[in-house]
Amino acid sequence: MKSTSLPQRQIHLDFHTSPAIPGIGADFDAREFARTMKRAHVNSVTVFAKCGQGHLYYNTRHPARHPGLRKGHDLLAKQIEALHRENIRAPIYISVLFDGYAARAHPGWLVVNPDNTRWTPKPLEPGWDVLDMSSPYQEFLVEQTAEVLRKFRPVDGIFFDICWDQPSVSVYALAAMRKAGLDPTIEAHRIEHARRVSAAYMKRFSLMVKATAPRATVYYNSRPLAGLPQDVRHMTHVEIEALATGGWGYLYFPKNVRFARNFNRPYMGMTARFHRSWGDFGGYKPRAALQFEVCQMLAHGAQCSIGDQLHPRGRLDKAAYELIGSVYAHAEACEPWTADAKPVTEIAVLRTGIGYQDAPGSANDGVTRMLTQLKLQFDLVDVTSNLDPYELVIVPDGFTIQPEHAKLLRGRRLLIAGDPKSLSRDAGVKVIGESPFTTTYFRLGKDATDHAVYERGWRMKPTAGATTLARVVEPYFERTWEHFCSHFQTPPLPKPGPYAAAIRKRNIITIAFPVFRSYATHGNLPYRQLVSECINALLPNKLVEVTGPSTLEVTVMRQRDRTIVHLLHFVAERRTQTLDLIEDIVPLFDVPLSLRLASKPKQVYLAPQKSALDWDYNGGRVTLKVPRVDGHAMVVFEGATP
Questions:
Q1: 145/151 Cα distance (integer angstroms)
Q2: pLDDT score recorded for residue 405
Q3: Are 382 and 354 in contact (CB under 8 A)?
Q4: What backbone torsions phi and psi does residue 45 show, to the nearest 5 degrees?
């Protein structure tokens, strides 16, 4: 599907409103609604046609119209008209799998689980009803969507929400699976049917939208990002929902944006103004936290979206838009240097599988956290991606190199972690087998310090032409009920054994344990030191080098004839058992920066303030000091290419 441009400063306005609440939109003031958005530097607002409770908020004869919305009050039309008067875009929200109204009216349309339970809340608990798109509910949704497209033609866009692959064994799903030759008693077949249903309805709805509004945006939210290679054909752009304080955490967005930006589509980050998660009325996150989340989107070339939820009576929260406006003012000031900017990267990391909200502690987490702390420029990519633009490919632990992968990887600079068997000959590695020890140790170079390896690795030795970069020190014995020493792992033997922890042969380095998953789980700094030394050996002339604390994030972007280096320094603190929060901005001073450029730039300055910097150009690198980083700084190099 052909993509369309995205606005930079969007509001995603939820309105999942109970039918038990009266006076829906009674206090709505169209003029004040739009002007509040304008004052907050907003240029797009996703407004609601149909919420997750299944109710409609426009003039319609459909019985799903919210019972608390007075007759003749077309809330959606008034929102769109008011926003358009202020030149603010207004894409429309439609809930897909969540529909409380349809569940009550047609309980046979609900998803049925293999144990014959319906996906609906327990009788005495609040929750969402999930509908089966194999059932007649899909036609019900088609009629609603067609009405929206007709009444508001041409729409600016449609945001379809709650669109994951939902297995079901309803009578409708069973009939469809039998017709397709799938066996519903096999879980994998039920999952495959759910995937096919999603693909079919996404294609159907996208064609409906484009038939009436060719320039409209179309997006399907709540889908696993790992499916983007297949799903992106039905979408004009990609949105990465990542409420850091709402369960996603501060690693989710940077991990997934590095994958999502590789599909030739505009992409957008989505956070929210809430202290916790969606619908947190009266909850406001600290300004520093919201500023970091928005600036991180800008630094990765993403457009910005901030979530809010309108009060049932139609009033915008004044405090929320003062908060949003203070952050979006900075985003608007940065726009001349962020619009249409593309990331400049030198490392490809083969992803090991990215879910919608994949469990923490994966190799994806570890490699993203580690390389970000090392201030390296990288993408997470699918193995079928074009690897030619990258100077180094990292094969993280958890990624199994198949024979067809080996063909694609040969001849490249590689850092391999985990099982090295498939490329062992090229890598100069003789694999003895899996280590018999749960915990071992390694010594880096000539260092005599033993560093604990908390995850089981592999025994391997170098072959001819290969060298050992780090050595394994094994324990006296495996800790068991028969023999143990002290409180945790068995101590190391006095000397290293015959096995290597890291081996190099020409442009390939292999690490013999799951270093990235281990780093995600344990955060042991020697793992980062080991990877850093390996990358320094393989990439001695890195794109950008910045001296600063590990909490300083650095990205490099390219825009027309300029290169922009973003520096972000916001420190999240664990304030509760589950909540990381950013409350204060801790400035940095005189930060050394070195950027590799093919030619001497015409000028170097800080944006958006346009203040000139002192700099030198020597040996193909520009060196300077950034005088101050107050959370976010942009260093602009005009007229030179990386």
A1: 10
A2: 83
A3: no
A4: -135, 120
The whole-number pLDDT of residue 94 equals 98
Of 342, 115, 384, nearest to 228 by C-alpha is 384
Q: CA-to-CA distance for 584 and 565, rounded, in angstroms? A: 23
Q: Which pair of structure tokens corresponds to residue 557?
A: 């972007």
CA separation (Å) from 551 to 375, 515, 555?
10, 20, 13
> Which pLDDT value is given to residue 378?
98
> What is the DSSP pairing of strand 467-473 with strand 500-505?
antiparallel
Tally of CB atoms within 10 A around 105: 13
CB of 546 within 8 A of CB of 567?
yes
Taking the whole predicted model, whether its pTM rises above 0.85 is answered as yes
Confidence (pLDDT) at 399:
87
Which residue segments constitute the domains of the chain, with CATH numbers given?
9-149+242-336 (3.20.20.80), 347-538 (3.40.50.880), 544-638 (2.60.40.1180)
- Burial (0-12, 13-18, 19+ Cβ within 10 Å), 602: exposed
DSSP secondary structure letters along 34-65: HHHHHHTT--EEEEEEE-TTS-B-SS-S-TTB
Return the pLDDT at 1: 63
Q: State both tokens at 576.
A: 């509760």
CB 504 within 8 A of CB 466: yes
Instruction: Return the DSSP state at 110.
Output: B
Strand, helix or coil for residue 306: strand
Question: In one letter, which amino acid is 600?
Answer: K
Helix pair 363-373, 515-522: axis angle to 10 deg: 80
Q: Name residues of the chain where pLDDT drops below 50.
A: none
Tokens of 520: 């995600």
User: Rg (Cα) of the chain, in Å, rounded?
Assistant: 27
**Residue 181: φ, ψ to 5°:** 80, 20
Residue whose structure tokens are 């793992």: 527
Give the integer Cα–Cα distance in Å for 89 and 539.
Answer: 45
Cβ count near 342 (within 10 Å)? 11
Closest by Cα among 122, 29, 17 to 73? 29
Tokens for 242?
A: 């990542």
Q: How far apart are the first and last CA of the chain?
A: 31
Cβ-in-10-Å burial (0-12, 13-18, 19+) of 619 comes to: exposed
How many Å separate Cα 70 from the centre of its chain? Answer: 40
Instruction: Count Cβ atoms below 10 Å from residue 166 Cβ, excluding itself.
Output: 21
The secondary structure of the chain in percent helix, strand, coil, rounded to multiples of 5, reads 30, 25, 45
DSSP code, position 475: B
The token duo for 232 is: 């992106």
User: Amino acid letter at 584?
Assistant: D
Long-range contacts of 577-585 (CB under 8 A, 24+ apart): 579/245, 579/276, 580/244, 580/245, 580/249, 580/250, 581/245, 581/285, 581/286, 581/289, 582/286, 582/288, 582/289, 582/292, 583/286, 583/288, 583/289, 584/288, 585/288, 585/291, 585/630, 585/631
Contact between 29 and 316 under an 8 Å Cβ cutoff? The reply is: no
Q: Mapping DSSP to helix (H, G, I), strand (E, B) and coil, where does residue 293 land? A: helix
Q: Report yes or no: 398 and 518 within 8 Å, Cβ to Cβ.
A: no
**Residue 199 is which amino acid?**
A
How many residues appear in the chain?
Answer: 642
Helix axes 187-212, 137-151, angle to 10 degrees: 20
Residue 594, strand partner residues: 545, 623
Rounded to 5°, the CA angle 240-199-97 comes to 65
Provide the 3-class DSSP secondary structure of residue 297: helix
